[in-house]
């Protein structure tokens, strides 16, 4: 796949979460959310940057700095209390998506597509900074942003539905077994049975990985001379937990387990697969090792 010339990662600050959030213990979420006194060490809020011949593509957009500067950013009342119990953020003036892209040599206006793994605040925070981007969102998650419990589920509609932004709401279709043109895709994504070729060249394949949210999506990046890269959002918080099928404590457990096993099955078929999560402290090193001297990072 010669259409990708560079893959990078940036971070829009850091987040601390409860240990049971990163790796579930079987205890109900409401219990540990209310009783835990511990936080994890700071974890990055990763955004993956893909230089494609058709334009600059992001996987996720990070956290909005307004979340730490604007006292009205989060809901009030009991819902706001739960947000404060769930996570705490450190986001400096230089941690905005725009500033971090500039540090990589890009402008925010260069971004032509941003794929959102799901619609939680630390993945949608940069939408307003991307004037020329098509924002790719899951139809399942998009359909729920106005539901009465959306905010309790971590989705704040006023931060997702940004005025002036262009959205592409997608369903991920099944891979057609009988289509010659799809046979290569089928081999590339099995055991996944659904995939969406975002650019029509096989370099960026969107895969369904529900569980953290009903419509959570992952992005399989394929570039000539590189191992396949799978960007998984919050399906896991570190690759060691993923390998052991240790699930996060937030999300629908049965769906997350099925998605985790699908990813592990993909790795069995492609042993060099590199899994890149949104909050894995090891992700930048994993990407650097995968890229090496083959591609500027």
Characterization of this structure:
The protein is built from 12 helices and 12 strands. By secondary structure, the protein is an alpha/beta fold. It has a single domain, classed as Ribonuclease Z/Hydroxyacylglutathione hydrolase-like (Metallo-beta-lactamase, Chain A). It has a 7-stranded mixed beta sheet with strand order 4-1-2-3-5-6-7. The longest helix is centred in the C-terminal third of the chain and has 17 residues, at 253-269. It is globular, with a radius of gyration of 18 Å.
Can you tag this structure with a few keywords?
single chain; 297 residues; alpha/beta; seven-stranded mixed sheet; globular
Task: Give the secondary structure arrangement, pairings included.
Layout: E1 4-17, H1 19-22, H2 29-35, E2 43-52, E3 55-59, H3 66-69, H4 77-86, E4 87-90, H5 97-103, E5 111-115, H6 121-124, E6 134-138, H7 139-142, H8 157-160, E7 166-170, H9 180-189, E8 196-197, E9 204-208, E10 217-221, E11 229-233, H10 239-243, H11 253-269, E12 274-277, H12 283-291
Parallel strand pairs: 3-5, 5-6, 6-7, 11-12
Antiparallel strand pairs: 1-2, 1-4, 2-3, 8-9, 9-10, 10-11
């Amino acid at each position: 796949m010669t259409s990708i010339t560079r893959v990078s990662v940036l971070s829009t600050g850091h987040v601390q979460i409860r240990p049971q959030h990163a790796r579930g213990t079987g205890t109900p979420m409401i219990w540990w959310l209310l009783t835990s006194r511990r936080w994890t060490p700071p974890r990055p809020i990763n955004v993956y940057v893909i230089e494609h011949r058709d334009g600059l593509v992001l996987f996720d957009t990070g956290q909005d700095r307004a979340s730490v500067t604007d006292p009205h950013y989060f809901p009030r009342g009991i819902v706001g209390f739960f947000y404060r119990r769930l996570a705490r953020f450190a986001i400096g003036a230089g941690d905005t998506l725009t500033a971090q892209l500039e540090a990589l040599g890009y402008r925010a206006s260069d971004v032509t597509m941003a794929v959102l793994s799901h619609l939680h605040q630390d993945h949608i925070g940069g939408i307003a900074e991307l004037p020329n981007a098509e924002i790719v969102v899951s139809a399942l998650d998009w359909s729920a942003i106005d539901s009465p419990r959306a905010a309790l589920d971590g989705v704040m509609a006023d931060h997702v539905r940004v005025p002036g932004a262009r959205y592409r709401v997608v369903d991920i279709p099944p891979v057609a077994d009988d289509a010659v043109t799809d046979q290569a895709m089928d081999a590339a994504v099995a055991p996944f049975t659904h995939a969406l070729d975002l650019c029509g060249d096989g370099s960026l394949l969107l895969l369904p990985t529900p569980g953290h949210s009903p419509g959570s999506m992952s992005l399989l990046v394929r570039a000539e001379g590189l191992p396949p890269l799978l960007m998984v959002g919050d399906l896991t918080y570190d690759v060691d937990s993923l390998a052991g099928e240790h699930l996060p404590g937030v999300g629908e457990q049965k769906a997350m387990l099925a998605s985790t096993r699908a990813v592990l099955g993909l790795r069995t078929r492609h042993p060099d697969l590199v899994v890149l999560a949104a909050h894995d402290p090891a992700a930048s090193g994993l990407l650097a090792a995968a890229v090496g001297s083959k591609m500027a990072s």
